[in-house]
Specification:
The protein is of the alpha+beta class. The chain contains three helices and five strands, in the order E-H-H-H-E-E-E-E. It has a three-stranded antiparallel β-sheet, with helices on one face. Strands 2-3 form a two-stranded antiparallel ribbon. Strand 2 and strand 3 form a beta hairpin. Helix 1 crosses helix 3. The protein is globular. The N and C termini lie close together (5 Å).
Length: 111
Amino acid sequence: MEIGIDLVEHKDILANYEALAKRILSEAELEIYNTLKLEKRKIEYVASRFAAKEALFKALGSYEKPYSFKDASILNKPNGKPYIEAPSIPFSFHISLSHTDNYSVAFVVKI
């Protein structure tokens, strides 16, 4: 079992969150992102997905195949619980996300 954690300060992505969204979000995530109306919510969404994917890569540790941000989708079950959908990555994960007005954090466990 390996873990990964990442913290993103919202002010660090404020100036370019739209470009960052296009660079890191999968198609499924972009569909959700495009439904968000408030800028604050869009920033939280992008920051939490960026943190989650960074934490995911940390939990993967050393691996043979390099993965890109778009290889994984951070989605939510109907009850709101986040999960990782990553068909090209041959592992299972647990994930937890949280955010405040200024920070988003993600914790990933490879199982």
